[in-house]
Amino acid sequence: MPAPSWAAWPLAELLSWALAAAWLLQALLCALFAGVMRRRSRSPQPPLAKWPVVEVLLCLRGVDPALPQALAALAAQRYGGPWRLLLVVDSSTDPAWGVVEAALAQLAASGQASWQQARLLPLGPAPRLGSRKCAALRRGLRQLHPATELVALVDADAVVRPDWLTQLAQGCGQPGVGAAGGNRWYLPAQRSGAGMVRAIWNGGALVLMTLLAIPWGGSLAIRRALVEPSGWRRVLRRSLCEDTALTQPLRRSGWRYRFVPALMAVDHDDSIQLRPLLRWIARQLVMARLHHPSWPLVLLHGLGTSLLLVASLLAALGLALTGAMAAALQLLAALLLYELGCAALLLWIQALVAAAIPLPQRLPLGLWLRWLPLAQLVYGLAALRAQLASSVEWSGVVYRLRGRGVVQATGFRA
Predict the structure, then answer these.
(1) Residues with Cβ within 8 Å of residue 211, at least 6 apart in sequence
(2) Is the full-model pTM beyond 0.85?
(3) How many CB atoms are located within 10 Å of the residue 42 CB?
(4) How many domains does the chain have?
(5) Residue 178 belongs to a domain with what CATH number?
(6) How crowded is residue 364: how many other Cβ atoms within 10 Å of its Cβ?
(7) CA 103 to each of CA 2, 59, 99, 112: distance values in angstroms, whole numbers, following the listed order
(8) Is 408 within the bounds of a domain?
């Protein structure tokens, strides 16, 4: 026998208030993020009296399609001081080795390269602990030029702007700042479903990473003087990633990380499918689980976002089936308002990014709203997967998670 409709109202009201509270919390986070973006935009980084000697460290395993363009963009840097390029490739037989050799020779012959020197090194023996990426970074840090004062990290798919090094140096030149960097903004070229899910997840991740001072290794600079004293290079010996693992060494040594909005990089990649995307997001979250003290908050945010959506849909269905249509409609209306509000927050984040860097186009509200529920579900599944993971695959290598901040390579993915 259907339950009396009046008995269903407390459940509908409880979930409606939960949706309102969740949106208000996310709006507060966005407001704090907006404050950071506006303060940094209103206070442009002052030019330095003396430009530090910079060495750009690029670690490669395999050939990214954007690698030639990325090298050309590095060659075109307009930097006020001397700088060098150091590339560490997984091995001399890696496909990236030949591509890099050819690209460097072409740039040198054309006279277009602005660096003073470009070196190419193999990684060497595989590490017992830690990822191959971290091992390559440690190899590069040991081989830095004696005059290097600032180490800049960049990803193989990052086509940086000509003022990239200038912005990094100015960011690190602020008092008390030991590391500075940007982040990534996804603008999928074809607006595919998986591409939009990644863009939505990344929009939320951008807010959390900024507020929690989580660096992004795709565009990051670190003062050389703190690499050893902070213990960061020792941490790299056993870590999965370099950027999230930098947070605690910086704090312990009394330095801080500075997010520079002008260093945001626009990524138009739209080739990923939904299943690999779930694994990719889970791996990003595993890095937070291993290396960042705020992982419980990130996990709660991911699971709560997904569970609230599922609970509201199931409760509305249950209410409708028991004859409480009015309560079901109220809950569905509250859920729709919540989703509209979250899509509006994404529009706000997009506007803040567009105020900091040129965006070739902006995604409309309807597109954000269309893929938002799926993105929320994927986020929750990825957060759960990250929390339960005992191993993770990255660039074809499988790593076993041996404890907080420790990974060990166990084999290669077939």
Answers:
(1) 29, 32, 33, 36
(2) yes
(3) 7
(4) 2
(5) 3.90.550.10
(6) 13
(7) 72, 15, 6, 11
(8) no
Strand partners for 407: 401
Buried b (16+ CB within 10 A) or exposed e, 291-319: bbeebeebbebbbbbbebbebbeebbebb
pLDDT in tens, 372-406: 999 999 999 999 999 999 999 998 899 999 877 78
Q: How far apart are CA 253 and CA 223, in angstroms?
A: 12
- The pair of structure tokens assigned to 102 is 């050819």
Residue 330: which of 3, 1, 20, 2 has the closest Cα? 20
CA–CA distance, 337 with 355 (Å, rounded to integer): 27
238 with 330, same domain? Answer: no
Q: Is 220 within a domain?
A: yes
Name the residue range of residue 165's domain: 51-291
Could you read off the pLDDT of 313-342 as tens digits, one per residue? Answer: 999 999 999 988 999 999 999 999 999 999
φ, ψ for residue 240 (rounded to 5)? -85, -40
- State phi, psi for 183 to the nearest 5 degrees: -160, -175
